[in-house]
């Protein structure tokens, strides 16, 4: 199909007057200029193991459910069994583990009932499913249950079932990511794919710790960078003073926006979050105060003096504790 400009003149003028449409806002003020989540588009998240990729994505999914009533279908076999996945989501939903006696029985049932309205677990008996099988199953499930999962999560990409059909891996990947992008645009839903970086000596600092991978260092090749729209690196820096005399807490996590398309959806840049393992939740700092999801957005201009806590105060965890 070839279009003449005059065929789209009215919609172009409308865009000029209304401006670019942003996606759903994030729960942290420090992220909102960098990243919004827009239906019909894709997000790729990369990071080393135990750097907080899954924790970050689940937090966003819970926020989208609570704030915007969006439903999420999630494939995350690395998180554990279906029961493990449900309990992890529930922990983020209420800020407390449902295991043990932290939460009463009636409240546990209430929380699980709330979570069940918004989250659906994509499960395969052999923990493998192709993208075609996933989308087909999702279409059938939505039609049978009269629901729409605006948000789909694949965590991680390497757990999917692959059939290269004789193609070189990089060619296959380019075609696969292109198919996924076209599919979500057609369905007007969003898909997040979590993946890992390449194995490379270039990702090691001279002091031995791992450096954040660039958008050209995703496992599988540069097809990720060519096909990517929103590309995010989640990186956990080593605790203490770095070579530039910047201090990093043990629970610090850097959000790095590596690519932002289409225009208006966000911009390249970095932000810092911190992880509270007891609440299974991230928070941000402003003016020496800790703010969990949505709190800073809704807060007054200045926090009350008695609510302030000392900067860099954190819940101590081991530096090798998985996020």
Low-confidence stretches: 308-320
Identify the CATH homologous superfamily.
P-loop containing nucleotide triphosphate hydrolases
Instruction: Please state the structural category.
Output: alpha/beta
The CATH class label is: Alpha Beta
- CATH topology label: Rossmann fold
CATH architecture: 3-Layer(aba) Sandwich
Model description:
The chain has 323 residues and is an alpha/beta fold. It has a single domain (28-307), classed as Rossmann fold, CATH 3.40.50.300. 29% of the residues lie in helices and 18% in strands. The protein contains eight helices and twelve strands. The strands form two sheets. A ten-stranded mixed β-sheet has the order 3-2-4-5-1-6-9-10-11-12. It has a two-stranded antiparallel ribbon with strand order 7-8. It starts with 8 loop residues before the first helix and ends in a 25-residue tail after the last helix.
Quick tags:
323 residues; alpha/beta; Rossmann fold; 10-stranded mixed β-sheet; two-stranded antiparallel sheet; 12 strands; 18% strand
In a nutshell, what does this entry contain?
This protein has a single domain, classed as 3-Layer(aba) Sandwich (Rossmann fold), CATH 3.40.50. 29% of the residues lie in helices and 18% in strands.
How is the secondary structure organized here?
Layout: H1 9-18, E1 42-46, H2 53-68, E2 72-75, H3 82-94, H4 105-116, E3 119-121, H5 131-145, E4 151-154, H6 169-187, E5 190-195, H7 223-227, E6 230-235, E7 240-241, E8 247-248, E9 252-259, E10 269-276, E11 281-286, E12 289-292, H8 295-298
Parallel strand pairs: 1-5, 1-6, 2-3, 2-4, 4-5
Antiparallel strand pairs: 6-9, 7-8, 9-10, 10-11, 11-12
């Amino acid at each position: 199909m070839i279009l003449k400009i005059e065929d789209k003149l009215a919609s172009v003028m409308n865009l000029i007057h209304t401006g670019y449409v942003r996606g759903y806002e994030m729960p942290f003020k420090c992220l909102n200029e960098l990243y919004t989540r827009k239906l019909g588009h894709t997000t790729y998240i990369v990071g080393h193991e135990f750097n907080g990729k899954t924790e970050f994505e689940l937090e966003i999914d819970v926020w989208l459910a609570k704030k915007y009533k969006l439903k999420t279908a999630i494939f995350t076999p690395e998180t554990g069994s279906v029961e493990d996945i449900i309990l992890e989501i529930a922990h983020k939903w209420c800020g407390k583990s449902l295991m043990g006696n932290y939460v009463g029985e009636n409240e546990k049932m209430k929380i699980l009932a709330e979570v069940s309205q918004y989250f659906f677990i994509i499960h395969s008996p052999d923990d493998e499913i192709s993208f075609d099988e996933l989308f087909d199953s999702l279409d059938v499930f939505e039609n049978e249950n009269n629901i729409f999962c605006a948000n789909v999560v694949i965590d991680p990409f390497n757990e999917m079932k692959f059939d290269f059909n004789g193609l070189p891996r990089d060619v296959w990947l380019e075609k696969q990511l292109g198919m996924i992008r076209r599919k979500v645009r057609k369905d007007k839903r969003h898909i997040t794919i979590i993946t890992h970086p390449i194995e490379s000596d270039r990702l090691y600092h001279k002091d031995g710790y791992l450096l954040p991978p660039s958008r050209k260092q995703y496992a599988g090749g540069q097809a990720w960078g060519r096909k990517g729209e929103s590309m995010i690196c989640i990186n956990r820096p080593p605790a203490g003073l770095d070579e530039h005399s910047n201090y990093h807490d043990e629970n610090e996590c850097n959000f790095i926006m590596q690519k932002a398309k289409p225009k208006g959806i966000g911009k390249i840049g970095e932000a810092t979050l911190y992880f509270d393992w007891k609440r299974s939740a991230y928070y941000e700092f402003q003016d020496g105060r800790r703010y969990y999801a949505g709190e800073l957005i809704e807060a007054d201009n200045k926090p009350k003096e008695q609510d302030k806590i000392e900067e860099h105060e954190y819940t101590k965890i081991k530096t090798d504790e998985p996020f």
